[in-house]
Amino acid sequence: MMLYRLVALKQSEQEQYEPVGWSKCGGCGFNERCWARAEAETDVALIPDVDQSLAKALHGIGVCTREELLAAFNVTSLSEFRHFVGTRQQKVGKRAERILLFADAMEKQQEKILAVPAIPPFPNYVMFDLEGMPPQFDELDRIYLWGMQVFGVKPTKFMPSVAEFGTNGDKEGWLSFLENAERLFRYYGDLPFVHWASYEKTYLDRYIKRFGDVDGIAARVKANLLDLLTVARDSVVLPVPSFSLKVIEKYVGYKRTQTEYGGDWSMAMFIEAVETSDETKRNELMGEILKYNREDLEATWAVFKWLKSKSP
Mean pLDDT over residues 6-16, rounded? Predict the structure, then answer.
């Protein structure tokens, strides 16, 4: 069956439509070709909340661009529009309003403030970001760097907790993180631990189960988590194709010093550091990973300050 499909694709005079996607296309060697074309054509696939199956369904009825989407649908009609998810059809539903808001913002290249960002007032905030190996690369599914830094009235320096390279290295990294977090609570009291998306919360839960939380420090961190992605999505609509931190940080004007960076890059650097026997090389690699994590925290703070300044 697959062979017939490949032959049909090669013999077709018209290239088959395949929607771009931020996560899907990020590390692809053809990214520049496909993404540039999608941007030039204002493809509906570039709209946040338009998933791959919806983009294909819209193309199937001749709605290929943002302009065509805005002309063809209102919130009610788009919410009723059905598309296949796997083998079942489902309605666009509640996503419809956000999709149309994003399409309009991207067409006009204008941001829209929906509500005052839900940021609790504190003099200081901890920016919190993890670097880890997913289960397909590491049977332990481990975090190799727990990064924290306080920003605000009384800032701190970068506070990384790095997993050791030995047998119990993963546990050592976790215990180091708990010590750093306990030190912050002792000095500042309860303060928000600001992160981006659900990764940090997920791995706090996993590590509590894996190694325990005798003094309740991790539970206290978890109780003080503030997901800045949720705050951003609830309060602003931006003319950007993704709510990835790497996209939003550029939008608000944050500039990194590294030419290469990202989650996949960080994992590749860590794997190389684990496998090398050259101590100097290992230190250099870990130094680059630490710089990347520190700039992730700075970028989160830049987005945080930008959001905090917004009101409808």
Answer: 62
